[in-house]
Records
---
Amino acid sequence: MATTTDARDADIARAAAAIADPSRARVLQALLEGRALPASVLATEAGVSASTVSGHLAKLLEAGVVRVEPHGRHRYYRLTGPAVGEALEALARIAPPLPVTSLRQSTHAHALRRARTCYDHVAGALGVALMAALLERGVLEGGDGRFHPEAAESDRLSAPGNDTTYRLTDPGRAELAAFGVDADGLPARRPLIRYCVDWTEQRHHLAGALGAALTDRLFALDWIRRGSRRRVIHLTDAGRTGLDRTFGVVVDA
């Protein structure tokens, strides 16, 4: 799944079978942040034993949806690339919601809507607010940051967008460089600018190499922090002030 294959030639059933098991689905959801995690953490996330998660990870490795990275004596697992995260987000769009049986689950769902990671970039209300601010300031141009279902050709909720072409302006390039994000120095193997149609906000949030680099910078400044639940991120007081002063991003408390 790391490479592009014509759907008529792809072994869709094999990939689907690897994802279909509930425990393996929870493993993949835990990896959606783009981080590499050890089997012990993934076992906890999936609610299974260490020996059971090893079997699940073997199947995911065989299907090509995760890869393993050795670090010293330890092995860490990561999604093979953004395409896997995009596929999982697309499945979330058509999947029925899990029943909310506790206040804790409800709180988690609300936190996901407020601010979360979508693979390696910021999504949710925070993500779309940041995208809107970049467009308003002229850092980006080419669209209005909104999903227009009546005019959509290939765009759909919870998926990478294709109908709009966003561009980084020269003043925007300089503004981001001053903020600590060097657009010219980002890896060329990945598109600089992409966007996703955010499934909770039904607007665009920034993806691609630039979205990932901007998110890394927000973490480095401690403007956002990872939450205790998977994919949830929290805006710090410094981040609330900094995003307002730097980009004019105003996020409700």
---
Amino acid sequence: MKPFRSSGKVRLNANGRRLDAWLIYKCVDCDKTWNRTLFERRNLRELAPATLEALQHSDPSWVRAQEFDLDGLKRKAKRIEEPPDAVVAKETVREAVDWAKLEIEIAAKLSANLRLDRLLASELAISRSRLQALHDRGNLNVHPDRSDFLRHRARDGMRIVLDLSDAVDRQAIGHAAIHSEGH
């Protein structure tokens, strides 16, 4: 089975005061299309004017948000292949004195199927097993709290707190946290 990629276009069908909307995907090898249902038989009065405008003009930012609605896509697709690249932008709010404590807040504009442990390991230049060991010792916590958070997706608004007071390499971890190395 060949992968499909979003065309960035929306297809609409009106039936009286009811509207159907699809996001059009195209095969990467041929021009075969697949219409992913966004909604069916929705009353026009239920749609916000901005949403209707975005649908009618295939607004790129609105379409992009729909493309990254992974939960909605999972309900319609058998398999999802995400691009291997993710853009990570880092912003330092306050420089640490000795990196004994590191707080990270995830600000994800779009949903991504990127596990938190993989993201942290990559951006802090430490292994996933070390992250797990920090968590097991109580030196790695997440807010809002949830069980087994390291194996779940990184989500907008997550706050991760690392106690690195016992880590001999905390300066290197802190340096990796604030600098982008080839991202």
